[in-house]
Write a structure and sequence with these properties.
Radius of gyration: 16 Å
CATH class: Alpha Beta
Strand order of the largest sheet: 1-2-3-6-7
Helix content: 25-40%
Shape: globular
Largest sheet: 5 strands, antiparallel
CATH topology: Peptide Deformylase
Number of helices: 5
Strand content: 15-25%
Distance between the termini: 32 Å
CATH architecture: Alpha-Beta Complex
Order of helices and strands: HEEEEEEEHHHH
Number of domains: 1
Structural class: alpha+beta
Bound molecules: zinc ion
Number of strands: 7
Length: 178
Amino acid sequence: MDRKLKGLDLPSLEILKYPDPRLREVCTPVKAFDQNLRALAERMLELMFAAKGVGLAAPQVGVSICLFVSSPTFEPQDRRIYVNPRILRSDGEQEGEEGCLSFPGIACNIKRHNIVAIEALNPDGERFEETSEGLAARIFQHELDHLDGRLLVDRMGSVARLSNRRMLKELEERFNMV
Ligand code: ZN
């Protein structure tokens, strides 16, 4: 079992909100492909759907391992699990509105590559490749950022930062009260 999964109480996991410092941790690659990994991924999917999100990375539930889940269509049958993902190729550019379950109430325009090919492992440790475009490519890049401890706020331009200033401050104040 991965050391970071030891003693993890899955039912009590919740989505961490900015500026929780655990969101800034750089994730370590997964080495143990066992039932604990799959159970964590399934719990993350549950939390993601409940929060009406299309992607969720393990550090967002306080587990700093290279794992994210998604469903670009928000349909349960399109749920996917990506372990140790890596970008192989990227191309083009898109700019669009992006949000994050760790930044409730915030949406801002962010530039991303339009096409992204990644390789990853499934929870059984089998390698696969996937090429995506548009929103699905945006999700890849957003979730990969999380695995490096990089957040939406780091990608915001000065205009987006200014227009979201109040919400960011509110999140910071809310966090400091807990
Ligand atoms: Zn996010």
